[in-house]
Q: What sequence folds into this?
């Protein structure tokens, strides 16, 4: 019966080709626009930390002085970072910031490259579950007693050492020799939630160095430096002791109890610092946010995207109403035919089913074309606006999602015309034949 | 002229669902199109703002000196570099700069102004450029009052506080109102700390952040930045920029090889990236508006065409009873206008409501009522076209064929 109805549906569609085309066009454009905006939104709205999301917490401190801005800073000062390390509550904790240096190898002909570097602690790799190809992080003792060791990523390993196991080999950062202790796999978090300073979809650094080298090598911060104090910072060491915010701080807390303990510890820390004359504001406090809360706090999904998704859903509604009007007109014209079918024994349900199948066929075609439009629109946006593939790749789920909303929404819209037509009184139409 | 609204209304009322659907469609279309075009116009006007810079002629690039030899005098090095670049025949002028206008990242600060400690107050936050006497000419900004720095006024020993500043007209207006800014003092920090004297006024110069209101308040100080990481700015004719990207690194490497030189980018290119999000928004919304209008008018035309088919007998009968072709066309048009006016008015109300919601939820300005009104008028024109074509066809129905089967 299903295939018979499909055949009937196809005949009916062919009978009014322009009208059918118009319906498919309307529904497919509606689906196409919705899928396009929703795809970009979804890509921005992913939480790459996965199941670790609720165990990793960004730490913020309201350390500004009086008469400053009322927002809690996304980053903390170097002195606070050193003090927070004293807490024994977190399972793991790290401080870090983005910097950079000229990279050279022992080969004199090698053209120096400027690379982004992350200065951090050895727990960075375990905390953010970074996979290693060769070697391992530097030893924890190096976080206190600095040593010239680095972890590099697979791509840089390819460029410097042709992808070989480079553990134990040497590279030069700003002409200082460093020993490679580990090579990590391609690890690209999108959004780059652990440091959102240079944009949530920026590339990861290719080199990781111990943060303990910062005071020695005086690595400049290549991220954001926010200062509320009018102190005059003349050199790097004064920067370390200043009130400038430039480090990110993350802790791993595995249980609710641990979270509460750590929050209490932070409050005690703020009190203690107030005793030393810092943290002057009445709302001085420490805050922890898990990854999702952190992404929300940093407004990773731009408002524009939310507006676009909202408007495109309204757009889809217009397309559906449009299709509904056309369907109604079309079905009602067929009332005489239905009258005859009813008279020779077709039940209302059968008529209803037959027309719903026709509607579903239009919906399915709309879904397929909608995907095509979305794919075209996304490719167009990628090439025109250099959005980066991460954002504009058509998500796999959309291949199922698009036809599904197309069919479901057209079925919902088609229900009314199909219901109207199945209630046709045969007698009226038989009389006028 | 008789519009015969009453019979049309009663025919609409007898078959409510179809017209009702059309009404809903028009209502939603007006709401969407009004808000979308409002956002588009807003973004386009943001993108039109002048940076003050000769954007296509000016480019910046970065240098990173990584030589650990601490004897190298970076200030002297910079002066030698810039002199060498300026000697190139293709180069109009060159200078050092701490951030690229429209570049997205850089320095900004607030300052204290006032006659005395008691009357002191904050000047508005401003993007700050650190450079020398060549910057004005290199960027191509217009000095409209006062003068530029003299070469011997530029502090090149590094790390020292500036003494002189060029301010933008906007900053001067916001800070001193109608008073002349020349000779005024701004303090870096508290009142009395590090006084800096205003010696010139620039017409327009934007800082690095296109989305921040303070971007027009730029200041230029007489202290070039000092450090391993450096940015130079060069102005030349558009045709020479590509070749200069090759010539300049070679030239500077002759002097000192231990540095990475990269990141050549014109201010025009920075503009493109800076406004990319706005352009994207305007493009997607523009696409939406066009497609929506297309679908609505095609749908309407399809519906009318269909109704013409259904009403063949009715039309033929009316023609036979003496209705002119114009009467038939008018019938469809009036029917359309009734739906349009009701749907459009409801749509305008919905548009304003939607605008209100968007303003509350997001940082959008409130929708100006002119937008729903214009959309409404546009829709009247568009639907007239969509209706008139099939209606003309209907008017061609000959009374004879139409009534034959009766």
A:
């Amino acid at each position: 019966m299903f295939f018979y109805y499909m055949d009937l549906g196809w005949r009916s569609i062919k009978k009014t080709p322009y009208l059918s085309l118009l319906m498919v066009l309307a529904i497919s454009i509606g689906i196409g626009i919705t899928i396009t905006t929703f795809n970009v939104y979804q890509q921005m709205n992913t939480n790459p930390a996965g199941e670790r999301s609720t165990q990793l917490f960004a730490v913020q401190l309201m350390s500004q002085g009086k008469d400053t801005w009322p927002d809690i800073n996304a980053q903390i000062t170097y002195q606070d970072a050193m003090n927070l390390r004293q807490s024994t509550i977190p399972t793991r904790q790290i401080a870090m910031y983005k910097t950079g240096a000229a990279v050279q190898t022992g080969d004199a002909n090698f053209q120096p490259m400027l690379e982004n570097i992350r200065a951090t602690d050895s727990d960075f790799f375990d905390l953010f579950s970074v996979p290693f190809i060769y070697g391992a992080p530097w030893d924890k003792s190096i976080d206190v007693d600095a040593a010239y060791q680095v972890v590099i990523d697979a791509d840089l390993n390819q460029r410097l050492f042709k992808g070989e196991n480079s553990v134990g080999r040497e590279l030069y950062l700003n002409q200082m020799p460093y020993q490679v202790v580990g090579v990590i796999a391609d690890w690209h978090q999108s959004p780059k939630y652990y440091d959102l300073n240079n944009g949530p979809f920026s590339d990861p650094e290719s080199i990781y160095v111990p943060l303990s080298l910062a005071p020695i090598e005086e690595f400049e911060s290549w991220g954001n430096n926010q200062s509320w104090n009018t102190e005059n910072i003349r050199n790097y060491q004064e920067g370390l002791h200043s009130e400038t915010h430039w480090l990110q701080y993350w802790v791993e807390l595995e249980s609710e109890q641990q979270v509460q303990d750590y929050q209490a510890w932070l409050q005690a820390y703020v009190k203690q610092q107030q005793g030393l004359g810092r943290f002057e504001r009445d709302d001085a406090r420490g805050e922890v946010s898990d990854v999702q809360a952190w992404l929300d706090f940093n407004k990773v999904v731009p408002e524009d995207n939310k507006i676009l998704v909202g408007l495109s859903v309204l757009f889809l509604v217009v397309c559906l109403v449009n299709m509904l009007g056309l369907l109604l007109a079309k079905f009602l014209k067929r009332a005489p035919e239905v009258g005859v079918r009813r008279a020779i024994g077709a039940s209302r349900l059968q008529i209803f089913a037959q027309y719903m199948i026709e509607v579903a066929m239009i919906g399915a075609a709309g879904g397929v074309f909608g995907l095509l439009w979305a794919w075209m629109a996304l490719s167009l946006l990628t090439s025109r606006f250099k959005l980066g593939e991460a954002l504009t790749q058509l998500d796999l789920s959309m291949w199922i999602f698009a036809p599904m909303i197309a069919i479901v929404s057209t079925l919902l819209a088609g229900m009314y015309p199909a219901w109207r037509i199945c209630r046709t009184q045969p007698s009226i139409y038989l009389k006028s034949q | 002229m008789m519009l015969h609204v009453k019979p049309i209304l009663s025919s609409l009322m007898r078959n409510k669902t179809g017209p009702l659907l059309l009404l809903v469609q028009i209502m939603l279309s007006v709401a969407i199109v009004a808000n979308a075009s409002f956002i588009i116009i807003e973004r386009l006007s943001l993108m039109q703002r002048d940076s003050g810079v000769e954007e296509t002629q000016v480019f910046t690039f970065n240098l990173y000196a990584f030589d650990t030899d601490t004897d190298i005098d970076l200030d002297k090095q910079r002066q030698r570099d810039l002199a060498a670049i300026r000697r190139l025949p293709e180069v109009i002028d060159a200078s050092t700069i701490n951030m690229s206008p429209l570049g997205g990242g850089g320095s900004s600060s607030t300052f204290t102004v006032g006659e005395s400690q008691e009357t002191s107050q904050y000047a508005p936050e401003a993007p700050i450029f650190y450079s020398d006497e060549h910057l004005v000419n290199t960027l191509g900004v217009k000095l409209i009052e006062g003068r530029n720095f003299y070469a011997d006024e530029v502090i090149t020993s590094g790390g020292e506080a500036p003494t002189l500043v060029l301010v933008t007209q906007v900053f001067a207006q916001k800070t001193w109102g109608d008073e002349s800014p020349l000779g005024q003092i701004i303090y870096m920090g508290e009142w009395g700390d590090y006084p800096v004297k205003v010696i010139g006024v620039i017409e327009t110069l934007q800082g690095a952040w296109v989305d921040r209101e303070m971007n027009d308040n730029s200041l230029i100080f007489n202290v070039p930045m000092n450090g391993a990481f450096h940015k130079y700015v060069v102005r030349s004719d558009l045709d020479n920029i590509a070749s200069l990207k090759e010539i300049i690194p070679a030239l500077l490497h002759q002097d000192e090889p231990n540095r990475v030189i990269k990141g050549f980018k014109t201010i025009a290119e920075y503009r493109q990236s800076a406004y990319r999000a706005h352009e994207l928004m305007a493009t997607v919304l523009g696409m939406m508006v066009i497609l929506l209008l297309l679908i609505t008018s095609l749908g309407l035309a399809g519906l009318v065409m269909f109704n013409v088919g259904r009403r063949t007998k009715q039309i033929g009968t009316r023609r036979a009873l003496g209705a002119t072709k114009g009467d038939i066309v008018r019938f469809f048009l009036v029917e359309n206008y009734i739906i349009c006016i009701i749907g459009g008015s409801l749509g305008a109300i919905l548009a304003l409501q939607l605008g209100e919601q968007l303003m509350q939820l997001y940082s959008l300005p409130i929708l100006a009522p002119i937008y729903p009104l214009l959309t409404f008028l546009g829709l009247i024109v568009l639907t007239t076209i969509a209706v008139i074509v099939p209606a003309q066809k209907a008017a061609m129905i000959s009374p004879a064929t139409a009534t034959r089967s009766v």
Q: What stands out?
A: The radius of gyration of chain B is 33 Å. Chain B has a mean pLDDT of 88. Residues 158 and 226 of chain B are 5 Å apart (CA to CA).
